[in-house]
Amino acid sequence: xxxxxxxxxxxxxxxxxxxxxxxxxxxxxxxxxxxxxxxxxxxxxxxxxxxxxxxxxxxxxxxxxxxxxxxxxxxxxxxxxxxxxxxxxxxxxxxxxxxxxxxxxxxxxxxxxxxxxxxxxxxxxxxxxxxxxxxxxxxxxxxxxxxxxxxxxxxxxxxxxxxxxxxxxxxxxxxxxxxxxxxxxxxxxxxxxxxxxxxxxxxxxxxxxxxxxxxxxxxxxxxxxxxxxxxxxxxxxxxxxxxxxxxxxxxxxxxxxxxxxxxxxxxxxxxxxxxxxxxxxxxxxxxxxxxxxxxxxxxxxxxxxxxxxxxxxxxxxxxxxxxxxxxxxxxxxxxxxxxxxxxxxxxxxxxxxxxxxxxxxxxxxxxxxxxxxxxxxxxxxxxx
Length: 384
Description:
Radius of gyration: 22 Å
Structural class: mainly alpha
Number of helices: 16
Oligomer: single chain
Helix content: 55-70%
Distance between the termini: 51 Å
């Protein structure tokens, strides 16, 4: 399913040339010559991605149809790395590439493949991208999606001494999403564990120690504050996934609340220009925040942890009052949801300007009901 290099370009040729094959894409230097010790074939990344205009269309589909629910990548962060890879030189101090973590840049191509794979799972059958890629039916979508996801996995595993970084975590979470969407939930549990361990290695679960440089500009200080916010949000996503998978699969948790000291993220929309924006509660232009649904899931995830610790998740509990208490707590959480996104009797005055609020209501109702139905098997036994 490779695509030849053409005049459109896709931004990854300059990236590979800037870092050099050996530094950016060499594999682990082990004794096994069959799969390690050799750089990836020159032009591999460029030859496997679709032309730039198709790539951008699939990126837009992902952020429009998938990320509002998944909350894995902030668009600002993605665009920053994507633009950096299109920069002509990594040594130019004015280049966007100079502002990015080299480790994140090296992982970004793998992240891109995973994002395209998930995007194809959400894309409609009749789009300009599907026509350009000759995708005539859902099976063709699935084949190309699997090809992209496997290619991302191949790239991330081939990087020499991959250290924990945000792009690598996001790649693994997108791989988890892709596997789960393919009904391979048990298999998805493994890359989730890898993503969580990377997050813990970076200290995402801990309260950030911030020290301000007296010579730091206001713009740099704001950018730093929002970068810390980005890391808190990524940890929230990891926490939600861990709780969900533990409850659904009956597997042990990789995260324990007692180990976590980080602050809850701000209930606001992530800005398009962090260096010019003060962190404040609420959405843009006075509208409700679209991050509220994620914070609701975060609260539910804490309830799952409490359930698992108390034993109320068992099918046959000795004290059913514990189950009833958790159900009441979820009802209280629903009652406290802002009016614009509460599932019942919502304030719909913002729906025209912010259509995503309609989906947020469905999301909150879905997650709450799933918690009541599946996180407490005793509830089902009691009902019947």
